[in-house]
Design goal:
Helices cover about 70% and strands about 5% of the residues. It is built from six helices and two strands, in the order αββααααα. The chain has a two-stranded antiparallel ribbon. Helix 2 packs antiparallel against helix 3.
Length: about 190
């Protein structure tokens, strides 16, 4: 869906729409008592990060995923200081999903959408867990082993959110792509 030669009003609108859906999806969160070092959440934001990359391509999808997630952080007091990191990490989520989708031919289907969603989810999980480790040492003053324990405590919720995104983003992407084509609303 991404045309590299021209940024159209339609593309800008789709980026805004996906950023808004990512923000709202991140807002709709349920605490998951799986985290040893604090509270983790199940939320729909990751689905929309992957969906942004799949539908909009790497650059616009990464922008939509990063913006939507960073905007959520800006309105959530506990996360406002990390909104720039969230922009980069969630932007990488959409970017990698979009790069996988666009690898080879521009044509994609359900299997390629699963691969893109999985690659984006794995990229984000690694970045998020690395940030958690570094933050544990620098900000919280943990020892290296305590920081690793905190990271291990975040693994269940991180894996759960990744799996949910890997399952649902491709299903939504195929359905939305089909509806967009039927309505002649492609971005190309």
């Amino acid at each position: 869906m991404e045309n590299k030669t021209k940024l159209t009003t339609r593309k800008i609108v789709f980026v805004g729409l996906m950023a808004a859906l990512t923000c709202v999806g991140s807002w709709a969160r349920i605490p998951v008592p799986l985290d040893i070092g604090g509270t983790s959440y199940f939320h729909l934001g990751n689905i929309f990060c992957a969906l942004s990359g799949i539908l909009l391509g790497p650059w616009l999808g990464g922008l939509a995923a990063g913006l939507g997630s960073a905007i959520f952080d800006m309105f959530y007091p506990a996360f406002i200081s990390e909104c720039w990191l969230t922009f980069l990490m969630k932007g990488a989520y959409g970017l990698i999903a979009g790069l996988v989708i666009r690898a080879g031919s521009k044509k994609w289907g359900y299997v390629k959408a699963i691969l893109g969603s999985a690659a984006g989810a794995m990229t984000y999980a690694v970045l998020y867990l690395a940030k958690s480790y570094i933050k544990g040492i620098i900000v919280s003053g943990y020892t290296a082993s305590a920081a690793w324990l905190a990271v291990i405590g975040k693994l269940p919720a991180t894996i759960f959110n990744a799996v949910v995104a890997i399952i649902f983003a491709p299903i939504l992407a195929v359905a939305i792509d089909k509806a967009l084509k039927k309505s002649h609303l492609t971005l190309e």
